[in-house]
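Support request, please re-run this one:
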Amino acid sequence: MKVHILGICGTFMGGVATLARAEGHEVSGADENVYPPMSTLLESQGIDIQQGFHSSDIPKDVDQVVVGNVMTRGKAVVEDMLDQRLRYTSGPQWLYENVLQDRWVLAVAGTHGKTTTASMLAWILEYAKMSPGFLIGGVPENFGVSARLGDTPFFVVEADEYDTAFFDKRSKFVHYHPRTLVLNNLEYDHADIFPDLDAIKTQFHHLMRTVPSNGLVVSNSEESNLQDVLDKGCWTPVETFASSSPDATWTVELKDEFGGEFEVYLKGELQGTVSWSLMGQHNISNALASIAAARHVGVPAEHAIDALSEFKGVKRRMQLRGEVGGVRVYDDFAHHPTAIETTLSGLRKNVGDKRIVAILEPRSNTMRMGVHEGRLAESLALADEVILFQPEGLDWDLHHVTDAMSDKAKILESTDAIVDYLVSIATTGDQFLIMSNGGFGGIHDKLLTGLEAKL
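Re-run finished. Output below.
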């Protein structure tokens, strides 16, 4: 089959392209933002990528166009595709029909922690010699790729609630039909898609309706919004997990205050102790969810615990990009106040009173719309200093945040200005935490280069 993918360089669609190529299909694609590492990864697999969306780039003998959710009516390539009556589908639908339909799907859903939990789960299955396939919205360090077909029926997928395509406004995850479903948490997000939290709960319940009665739902018992979803109707056994409550199916007992070592309990019985390099309460919750989900496909909890002790983390999830002269530069994907707060909390517990400088790019659609404006200052409170990047076209005034934080926060309007400032203040022991769900203009490498020149 000859497949052309519109929006191929997004993490999800790039993963679809990787899987399509692995299945032997001839794959090409186009995107407006073609840059490494996704572009080089796809090109290394023999996938032809075009910059920009042009109808002439769609092969004349294409069998199917896979349409990413960045595509909208009015784009010339979309209008021509429809006028020519080309066969087209969405990425999630293509994934189900060509990869997931006959497999045991383990899906990880939630506002936060999907990528990390899915990565943990895939690694546990790999450690157990189960050679799973996976499609994850990040790059697990244990694998070095975000997607692969795998050699067994098991497939781990990050289940995103964002909409599917311009012609299918359901959430992506309703296409996956999981047998094992993890529900991490649920908050209001994606304000460009959902009018309110209840609309997201409805989509989550649509997902619940697809899980068979011989499946398993693994749900965070500390999240009342998830309980609301379950109360709408659940036809599947449920196991709960909690990082700080003793009443769930899966619980923990911390052995140190940083979360680097903790005991895992199943219905009050000790299963083993996780010792790892990750930090933060949120990662403990992610670990419990992944252990429970892996047990559903036959991995004993003690084996899952051993696997997690060798889990290396995920790129762009509190990833240490480099250290120069005792100054550490981290890259993190946080772009929601809850994620920002939990990331800072984990780092603060780990580094004590060392100076933390948080650098935030308000890039997501929800952030750019100002939906989280009222919570942002509070979520950044654990940082000693905050730098806010001022992008073009922001729908609200960042000064509302800096005013709330007094002289602790400042606004800068270019990545170069941010780098120059950070280099000027850098001293041994500083922790520079850069948070964005995009490339942020290559700021990480620029900063490390600047620090090397100074220190």
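The chain has a mean pLDDT of 91. The first strand starts at residue 2 and ends at 6.
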